[in-house]
Amino acid sequence: MLLIIGVVLLYPVIDAAVGTFLTQGTGQPTLQYWSQVFHAVPVLGDMGVSLVLSVVVVCGVILIATPCGYALAKLRFRGSGVVFALAVACMMIPTESILIPEYINFVRLGLVGTLWGTAAVYVGMGIPFGVFLTANYFRQIPDSLVEAAHVDGAGNVQAFLRVMLPLARPALAIVAVMQFLGVWNDLLTALLFMPQQMQTIGVGLASLPGTHVANTNAMVAGSVLSAIPPVLVYLIFQRHLIGGLTMGAEK
Amino acid sequence: MTQPSSNSAGAVTFSDVAAPGELEPATEPPVGRRRTRARSASSTTFQRRARVGFLFALPAMVAVVGIMLIPLFQAAYYSLTTWDGLTSTYIGFSAYTQLFFHTVGIGQILENNAWVVISIPVGLSLALVAAFLTATKAVGWKLFRKVVFFPVALSWVVIGIVFGAFLAQDGGLNALLRASGLGHFTQDWLGSPATALPALLCTFAWAMFGINTVIFISGLATIPHELFDAARVDGAGTVRVMLHVVLPIMRRFVGLAFVVTLISGFTGIFGLIYVMTSGGPGFSTTTLEFQVYQEAFSLGNLGTAAALGMVLFAMMAVLTAVIGVISGRSSDF
């Protein structure tokens, strides 16, 4: 029964992937669609852009969100509860609801059509999730560990960097993996904010229809190629991903 | 970021108070005097901590205010105007009445969003069955658990291209139909208004199936095995065990899966629609999310687009709150 469900699930993907090696109509084995993709679209270049963008965003979110999550858990200040509630609320704001003023603001600031501007949008929208997740994680770590670090002469900053941050690695892995997949797999923000001559792989693939390589098999070939990095990340970090997704229910 | 002087000072006062070994519970007895000393010293420690904490949180707060909250308030304001990006004219709430009564295709669009909601329970029940089979270790459960989650790594663009190929006139589904003697059912599934939305929703359900199954598997793992056994001893069949034992315990997880799927379906599948159908034929696969983009960047009606975005936000807030109440979860996703 499960095997049948599994086959039904995988069939469309396998069918389409196999199709990229067969000539349309006659069914003869061929590599023409694959060579078409490499020649007509800078697939590898676009994937490089996606990689750089994802890495910048992952670093940005972790650098900015983690100290905040730590502060909300261990260095509470007046209003920190409000900040946490706000982070949770911001996680529910749909991108589409704020994207248009965002776009106009960024046009005025000259940041549309730049990698840094695009990264800033992703980072800003990724921070609430990062804060929420790291705050919850730091909360589970006993206070006595912080106190022990203070006894050893560490200040607040050192206690955070030397003691708490290494302990929080699993939470940081979840944030990094979710952000990486989010940026690699996004279309809308990259479509609007990235420079014309520097496209992510998602935009590159999505803008193929209507061009001279609008061949279905070639597009599927490009898709298969573009899915390799996220699938690898998925295979390596499967447990973290599941943790990130089910976190809300298990509290 | 913070001045090192204040920090090392903080550490000094603290180690003054906390004599070696004092933090271990074993040396609890001489509490009285030390507690009072600790309190007076720690009030300054706490103040310093609060200051450091505020500085730690500041960059994140600035970023979220600048990139999310200010645009949200701008969107709320511009939704009450006609706006082309340069000049805006305030027209008040008539912007919303215009939106709902005079925008071309709006009825169809709202109906499509309703269909997204209606499709969710169908997908969730399939995922629940699959999770139950996995949890009861049906044949092939280990392999299944490995494979089922992998669509989560695929982008909506990739899923859209693959399923666009599969559902096309010369695609895999029609080939399958012809091979099994159902040749007269073949058609361009994404090309006609009657089948485009169901085809899109099936693709969406396919993509969400893995996540939901995994959520349910981790939910089932929280149910003690004795409970199944006890129900079995009482003579309950599989279906009754599902309905009376599993479902009540799984309420929270069903709620979570529903919210996750709803968020994706309402605000996450722009890429899927863009690649598969571009919202067509006509408005037959346009959802609110997609129309925000169309209004703004194809038609240039930024005010209307902002209003649509606010409607989408309000719908998400109301729906997640309702699901939260029904499933007994606080709105913590």
H-E order of chain A: HHHHHHHHHHHHH
Taking the alpha carbons of the first and last residues of chain A, their distance comes to: 32 Å
| Gyration radius of chain A, rounded | 22 Å
Tally of individual helices of chain B: 13
Total strands of chain B: 2
Please report the two chains with the greatest interface, counting residues with C-beta closer than 8 angstroms to the partner's C-beta: A-B, 104 and 110 residues
**Average pLDDT across residues of chain B?**
78
Q: Regarding quaternary structure, how should these chains be classified? A: heterodimer
Low-confidence stretches of chain B: 1-40
Q: How would you spell out the order of helices and strands of chain B?
A: HHEEHHHHHHHHHHH
Rg of chain B is 28 Å
Strand percent estimate of chain B: under 5%
Record field, number of beta strands of chain A: 0
Shape of chain B: globular
Strand order of the largest sheet of chain B: 1-2
Q: Taking all residues together, what is the mean pLDDT of chain A?
A: 84
Largest sheet of chain A: none
Largest sheet of chain B: 2 strands, antiparallel
